[in-house]
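Structure tokens please, single chain.
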Amino acid sequence: MLNRMKTISIRDMKAHWTEIEQQIRNGESFEVLNRGRPAALIVPPQPREVLVWDDHLETAVPSSGRSTEQTVRADREGRW
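Here you go.
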């Protein structure tokens, strides 16, 4: 079964935000209308994938045999 998107005016959205926010948290989507015309879509957030990258400084920039501090220093030269 398809979940139909609900429509709401900006005025009603402002007046009933607490209830609308709860519905969004429960998976509902809303099309916000401004004077009868679509102005925005409010959809529930997608869960984010957290990237675990313990050695990011060591692997982000090829080292060329330099330490991380030397790489950062060389990158900043001339910018300050």
